From TrEMBL:
<dbReference type="InterPro" id="IPR051921">
    <property type="entry name" value="ABC_osmolyte_uptake_ATP-bind"/>
</dbReference>
<dbReference type="InterPro" id="IPR027417">
    <property type="entry name" value="P-loop_NTPase"/>
</dbReference>
<protein>
    <recommendedName>
        <fullName>CBS domain-containing protein</fullName>
    </recommendedName>
</protein>
């Protein structure tokens, strides 16, 4: 905590953090990540956060760069990196990611076909882990709403399975 506070004392334009939580036990690490996210929302700083813990990167980042031998091999949002790995190295790097906990309905939804109602919709931010039980009720398609409550798209059971399997459907 002291190191984080010291790094902010000079009010940097870009906040550079190199493995800030690597030596912490899992409980304190999670608390510090929560505090980091709270500070980011409050301060609106650009941050370069270096970590070798990919799950930590997925949790705290809105953009990720994956490097191999000193070269950036892919950069993008956490969902882009997980869903569309640039090469075999990135695919292997992301292989054990708990996709159901990270991928959201909004990140894989398709355009709405117009016959769905907002009252049955799920938010774009709902993870697949929370969405899957809704398909067990016999639904084939579920509406997805934006933060205003308007229908933003729809998601099918097949789209969920495809995302969890780590493959993309071929375009016709």
């Amino acid at each position: 905590r002291v190191g984080i506070a010291r790094s902010l004392a000079v009010e940097p334009e870009i906040w550079f953090l190199d493995e800030p939580f690597s030596a912490l036990d899992p409980l304190i690490r999670r608390q510090m990540q929560d505090e980091f996210l709270r500070l980011q929302r409050l301060l609106h700083k650009s941050i370069v956060f270096i970590t070798h813990d990919f799950l930590e990167a997925l949790r705290v980042a809105d953009r990720i760069a994956i490097m191999k031998e000193g070269e950036v091999v892919q950069r993008g949002s956490p969902t882009e990196v997980i869903m569309r790995p640039a090469n075999d190295y990135v695919a292997e790097f992301t292989r054990d990611v708990p996709r159901a906990k990270l991928i959201t309905a909004g990140s894989i939804m398709s355009p709405s076909e117009g016959h769905l109602t907002a009252s049955e919709a799920v938010p774009e931010t709902m993870t697949l882990e929370r969405l899957i039980p809704r398909f067990s009720q016999g639904l084939e398609v579920i509406a997805v709403c934006d933060d205003t409550g308007s229908i933003a798209g729809q998601i099918s059971a097949q789209e969920v399975l495809t995302a969890l399997a780590g493959t993309e459907e071929e375009s016709p």
